[in-house]
């Protein structure tokens, strides 16, 4: 399998994630789509690391994973408290912060 | 013109100023505790100052003595020593101020007896006396200026003494503002002296006047004249003085007749070396004097307010003094002699007018007086003597001093001399006219009193000063001109009197003046004494009378030339400020506020639209990067 296949797969995954973030209302799903985008980027990083034979991309991928794990903790906590107060996990309902 | 350090009693000349000043301080700071004896303290300090001034004068012996006090200002090249100059000129002023001042303080005890703020009145009077003494005793222009402003302040406070009356408050403001115009002239003159000569002491300035360029000396002379005009109520700044009669009558007598308004004459006489060096400024002094003495005399003929007649008379008489000092060395002594005799008889006349007002329930309209001669004998006799002295009745004081001025005018010898002398004689006739009119309307004829008015003679605390001033009015001219000539007394200041070459024989002048005076009296009798005086002023009168009633439209000119344009300027500036400056600031704020609230509309609160804009932004950034790297 050539480099192109990996990159195309990553692009598809990223697109799915981006579209999901934009169109889905459920905060959990939006969150998972964000994770999908992060992982598609991880795939790209690892692909290029392998292609160039250096470790830089893989190290970057680990950093992304660590940050994503931390982000999951905070994000899920926010979604939990949001759900507790509003009985809904829809991102459209959480619209207090506006003009 | 050499000064020597003071010795003997004169070293304590500073007490002359300190005594009344301390009186004012005690009365103002002591508050109500001093109410019971405040007037006695106020009178006592001035009497003490008079006694001290008299003792100092007796020791003077024709010297010019300098009393060094302390360093007032020492910055860079400006070095002002606070010091007093006690010379024959300041000595006569000290005696006039403290002497007449003491009499008027005594009179005020009676006049202000029922005023709840009598203590405050005496405090202001003491403040005035202190400032006036500083004005005439200072040995430099800065001290003179401090005194000059001090008397201006005291004058303002005293004109507005009954400040609950709007007319009094307005008159005080008017006096203060018109004085300020003159004071700017005086201040500029002092600045000019310092800039050109580096000194402000009399000796320094007068000693170096010869080294200045002609234009500079003329500028100094004209600026000093402007200051003198403001303080002395001379053309073109004469309009405040008649309005100042809103103050209590003792104030009119002391400040606006006898002393403060003559400060301008003092200034010009003191600055004789400056005017010796500039014929232009001296001619301006002459012109001011001649114009003012006519304006005052004409306006005085048509007033119905007894104090206003006396006020215009003061304006006119000070015009005589300006005319005299404007004539140069021949006129200084004549002008100062008239100043002194005028101080006596005009103060006496004002005190008499105050006594009349006291009897008439503070009415001032002469059309409602009449027939008071029999009710108020002392006032009538003292007022009558002052009247005779003022119109120049032979051998009373005005006769000697006014004639001396008119003679000095003729002695110029040229056409101008005849013109000035003619104006002065004509004004003497007008003086006789308006004063006779005042006498006839007040003391003679049928009583035209308001119902409920019961005229009575004033208490002796008021009549005693009037009697003393009347004696002064009768004798002062003889004493100052014949018995103890002022000319010899003032020789150390103005130099040896020149042997005058009389163009017109003095006897001819005296006869001419007396005849014109008699004509004035006769005309007044024909117009006023022979006929019934209407209680309300006639409306259908000649244009001349109408102009004279309005003081030759001095107020109208001031208002249309200065007040109205000033108001227009203010209004235009307010408009520019509201519409222009405020408009720009408010418009900018509104624009920014509106656009920011419109921008705020994009913050919808929908997370997904934020996400879309983030994506869009990221795409744009990525596209831009690609375009840059590819390009």
TrEMBL record, chain A:
Pfam families: Oxidored_q2. The keyword Transmembrane helix applies. InterPro entries: NADH_UbQ_OxRdtase_chain4L/K (IPR001133), NUOK/Mnh_C1-like (IPR039428). The keyword Transmembrane helix applies. It catalyses: a quinone + NADH + 5 H(+)(in) = a quinol + NAD(+) + 4 H(+)(out). It is found in: Cell membrane; Membrane. Keywords: Cell membrane, Membrane, NAD, Quinone, Translocase, Transmembrane, Transmembrane helix, Transport. It is a multi-pass membrane protein. Its EC number is 7.1.1.-. One of its GO terms (molecular function) is NADH dehydrogenase (quinone) (non-electrogenic) activity. The chain crosses the membrane at residues 6-23, 28-49, 61-83. GO terms for biological process: ATP synthesis coupled electron transport. One of its GO terms (cellular component) is plasma membrane. It is an enzyme of class 7 (translocase). HAMAP family: NDH1_NuoK (MF_01456). PANTHER family: NADH DEHYDROGENASE SUBUNIT 4L-RELATED, NADH-UBIQUINONE OXIDOREDUCTASE SUBUNIT ND4L. NDH-1 shuttles electrons from NADH, via FMN and iron-sulfur (Fe-S) centers, to quinones in the respiratory chain. The immediate electron acceptor for the enzyme in this species is believed to be a menaquinone. Couples the redox reaction to proton translocation (for every two electrons transferred, four hydrogen ions are translocated across the cytoplasmic membrane), and thus conserves the redox energy in a proton gradient. NDH-1 is composed of 14 different subunits. Subunits NuoA, H, J, K, L, M, N constitute the membrane sector of the complex. Belongs to the complex I subunit 4L family. This is NADH-quinone oxidoreductase subunit K. The lineage of its organism: Bacteria, Bacillati, Actinomycetota, Actinomycetes, Geodermatophilales.
TrEMBL record, chain B:
It comes from the Bacteria. It is found in: Endomembrane system; Membrane. Residues 139-424 form the NADH:quinone oxidoreductase/Mrp antiporter transmembrane domain. Keywords: Membrane, Transmembrane, Transmembrane helix. GO terms for biological process: ATP synthesis coupled electron transport; electron transport coupled proton transport. One of its GO terms (cellular component) is endomembrane system. GO terms for molecular function: NADH dehydrogenase (ubiquinone) activity; NADH dehydrogenase activity. It is a multi-pass membrane protein. The keyword Aminoacyl-tRNA synthetase does not apply. Residues 73-122 form the NADH-Ubiquinone oxidoreductase (complex I) chain 5 N-terminal domain. This is NADH-quinone oxidoreductase subunit L. It comes from Geodermatophilus poikilotrophus. The lineage of its organism: Bacteria, Bacillati, Actinomycetota, Actinomycetes, Geodermatophilales.
């Amino acid at each position: 399998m050539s480099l192109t296949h990996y990159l195309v797969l990553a692009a598809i995954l990223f697109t799915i994630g981006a579209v999901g973030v934009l169109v889905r209302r459920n905060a959990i799903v939006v969150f998972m789509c964000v994770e999908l985008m992060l992982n598609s980027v991880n795939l790209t990083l690892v692909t290029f690391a392998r292609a160039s034979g250096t470790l830089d991309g893989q190290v970057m991928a680990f950093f992304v994973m660590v940050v994503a794990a931390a982000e999951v903790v905070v994000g899920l906590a926010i979604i939990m408290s949001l759900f507790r107060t509003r009985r809904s996990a829809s991102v459209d309902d959480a619209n207090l912060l506006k003009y | 013109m050499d000064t020597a350090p003071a010795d003997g009693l004169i070293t304590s000349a500073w007490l002359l100023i300190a005594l009344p000043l301390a009186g004012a301080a005690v009365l103002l700071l002591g508050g109500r505790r001093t109410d019971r004896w405040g007037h006695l303290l106020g009178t006592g300090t001035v009497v003490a100052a008079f006694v001290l001034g008299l003792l100092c004068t007796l020791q003077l012996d024709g010297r010019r003595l300098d009393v060094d006090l302390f360093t007032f200002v020492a910055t860079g090249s400006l070095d002002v020593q606070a010091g007093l100059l006690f010379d024959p000129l300041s000595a006569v002023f000290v005696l006039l101020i403290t002497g007449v001042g003491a009499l008027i303080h005594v009179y005020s005890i009676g006049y202000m007896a029922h005023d709840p703020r009598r203590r405050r009145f005496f405090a202001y009077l003491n403040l005035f006396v202190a400032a006036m003494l500083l004005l005439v005793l200072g040995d430099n222009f800065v001290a003179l200026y401090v005194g000059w402003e001090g008397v201006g302040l005291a004058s303002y406070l005293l004109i507005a003494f009954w400040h609950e009356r709007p007319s009094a408050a307005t008159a005080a403001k008017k006096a203060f503002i018109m004085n300020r115009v003159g004071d700017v002239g005086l201040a500029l003159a002092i600045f000019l002296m310092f800039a050109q000569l580096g000194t402000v002491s009399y000796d320094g300035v007068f000693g170096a006047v010869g080294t200045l360029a002609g234009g500079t000396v003329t500028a100094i002379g004209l600026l000093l004249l402007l200051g003198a005009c403001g303080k002395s109520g001379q053309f073109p700044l004469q309009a405040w003085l008649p309005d100042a009669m809103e103050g209590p009558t003792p104030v009119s007598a002391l400040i606006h007749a006898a002393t403060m308004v003559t400060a301008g004459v003092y200034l010009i006489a003191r600055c004789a070396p400056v005017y010796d060096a500039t014929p232009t400024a001296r001619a301006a002094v002459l012109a001011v004097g001649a114009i003012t003495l006519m304006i005052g005399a004409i306006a005085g003929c048509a007033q119905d307010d007894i104090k206003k007649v006396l006020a215009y008379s003061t304006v006119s008489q000070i015009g005589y003094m300006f005319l005299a000092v404007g004539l140069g060395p021949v006129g200084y002594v004549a002008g100062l002699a008239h100043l002194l005799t005028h101080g006596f008889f005009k103060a006496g006349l004002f005190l008499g007018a105050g006594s009349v007002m006291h009897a008439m329930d503070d009415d001032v309209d002469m059309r409602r007086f009449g027939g008071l001669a029999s009710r108020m004998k002392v006032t009538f006799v003292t007022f009558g003597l002052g009247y005779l002295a003022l119109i120049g009745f032979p051998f009373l004081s005005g006769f000697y001093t006014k004639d001396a001025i008119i003679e000095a005018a003729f002695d110029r010898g040229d056409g101008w001399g005849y013109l000035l002398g003619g104006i002065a004689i004509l004004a003497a006739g007008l003086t006789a006219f308006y004063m006779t009119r005042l006498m006839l309307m007040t003391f003679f004829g049928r009583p035209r009193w308001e119902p409920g008015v019961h005229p009575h003679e004033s208490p002796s605390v008021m009549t005693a000063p009037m009697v003393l001033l009347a004696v002064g009015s009768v004798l002062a001219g003889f004493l100052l001109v014949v018995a103890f000539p002022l000319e010899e007394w003032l020789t150390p200041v103005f130099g040896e009197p020149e042997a005058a070459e009389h163009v017109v024989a003095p006897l001819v002048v005296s006869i001419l003046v007396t005849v014109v005076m008699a004509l004035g009296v006769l005309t007044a009798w024909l117009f006023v004494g022979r006929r019934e005086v209407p209680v309300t002023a006639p409306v259908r009168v000649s244009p001349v009378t109408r102009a004279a009633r309005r003081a030759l439209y001095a107020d109208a000119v001031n208002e249309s030339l200065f007040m109205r344009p000033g108001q227009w300027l203010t209004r235009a500036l307010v408009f520019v400020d509201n519409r222009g400056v405020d408009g720009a600031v408010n418009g900018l704020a509104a624009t920014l506020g509106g656009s920011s609230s419109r921008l705020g509309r994009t913050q919808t609160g929908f997370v997904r639209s934020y996400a879309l804009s983030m994506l869009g932004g990221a795409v744009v950034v990525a596209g831009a990067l690609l375009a840059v790297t590819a390009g």
